Write the structure tokens for this entry.
Amino acid sequence: MDAASGAAVTALEVSPGDHVLDICAAPGAKLCMIADLLGSTGSLTGVDIAQHRLAACRTMLQKYGLGNRCRLFLADGTTFSLLPLAKPNAISHMDKQPENTSYSQNLHLSCLHTNSENEGKKGYDYHAGIRSTVLKEWVSRKTRKEKHAEKRARFFEEKRQQACHLLDDTAGGEQPKLPEIFFYGTESGMLGMEQSEVLNHTAYIDAVYSQNGYDKVLVDAECTHDGSLKHISKFEQWGWDTFEHRFFNVERISSIADLQLQLLLNGFRLLKLGGSLVYSTCSFTFQQNESVVERFLAAQPNAELKQIEASKEWPCRVGGLMHTLRFDPFVSNTNGLFVAKIIKTRSAPTKR
């Protein structure tokens, strides 16, 4: 891992007991650094959409013995919604209807409270085959029976959540695909839980995330990697004729910037009130960095850029926005990296 990449993790200021989310975890170097900082406290959740890259995360965690308090999910970082397990179960505490909760939102919550007298109604027995799927100690190779049980449990859980989704007359679009449990350590909080419990540990009201969300969130977003010398060297194999399309194609960069914004928005949604989020890329482009942050701040009045205290000792320069940082080969003698630290405030800040 390049020294500049470590700056993104350092900027998080991980403290003992923190519950940390790495929303673009692969290939795993930053994830391992966070796990090492947490030690024997807190929890670490890693998410990535690419299975082969997430497998690299798992291998790295196991290789260095850092996976005890970690859990990995194969999921889309723009829609991932699971709360940290070590926090109070938001769903179980939602019996009292919040004053600002809509009727449709409470239908969602009541659906999550499905009890025995509702089982089997409307042609679905959503709990059939699910409650017997208790998560045992993680093993890299599973029997055919275990794989079938997990697949069956996911099928019924997806059907149950689809039914909940249909009850909400405000819900638009397709129901997001459920995360796939990819790895969990012995001290991750998942051992002995039912698979449905893990996948149910979510909320449909953003205020719940502000109360019970993650203390720290890292969004090291997918980018064009034009600031990575190692990545650029790969064009020797890929062919330099593809360089222009990968780095200078306007449509591609615009599409990636939109994805980065969605990742940032969802990471911030999962952040608790007063928590810190770090957004980083290894791109030099303004469109993937300052522009994404500007668009994000315009959409989130309770978000505020914060100075990175440790940066006073770093060989870097100020970015195009106040409190943002840029590393580059000339000033830092490292790969390129953009870093912005954002905190979730109770109300809109007076100044940015």
